[in-house]
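Why should sequence recovery work at all? Because a backbone constrains its sequence more than one might expect. Tight turns favour small or flexible residues, buried strands favour hydrophobic ones, and helices have their own preferences. The token representation captures these environments compactly. In the example below, the structure is given first.
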């Protein structure tokens, strides 16, 4: 996890355990971008909800997209020969998960972690 990302999570008061979960999710999202799209971006920002604060992570690319999102979210499914834990793992690590993808136009994954 880059220094700026650590600073954001620390500034928001996340526990060291939550910082580890956030770092792992970012790592998995970055790995997916590199493996499938070759380039993309990951943006972080703070978010406020009803009586809570959190972090929003948006990973996006203009790669080949995902033709079957439901299948891509199944544990063990992989088109790259990996263990198939990336997207399902990110979904479990974070509090909110949203994915949109269009074949040949890219994928965007938005996840939130709320401070407990």
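From this structural description, the recovered sequence reads:
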């Amino acid at each position: 996890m880059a220094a700026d990302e650590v600073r954001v999570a620390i500034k928001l008061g996340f526990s060291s355990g939550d910082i580890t979960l956030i770092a792992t999710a970012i790592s998995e999202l970055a790995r997916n971008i590199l493996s499938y799209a070759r380039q993309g971006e990951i943006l972080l920002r703070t978010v406020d909800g009803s009586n809570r604060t959190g972090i929003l992570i948006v990973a996006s690319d203009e790669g080949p997209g995902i033709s079957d999102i439901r299948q891509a979210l199944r544990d063990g499914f992989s088109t790259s020969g990996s263990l198939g834990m990336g997207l399902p793992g990110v979904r479990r690590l974070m509090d909110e998960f949203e994915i949109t993808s269009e074949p040949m136009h890219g994928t965007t994954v938005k996840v939130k972690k709320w401070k407990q």
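A few observations help interpret the result. The mean pLDDT is 87.
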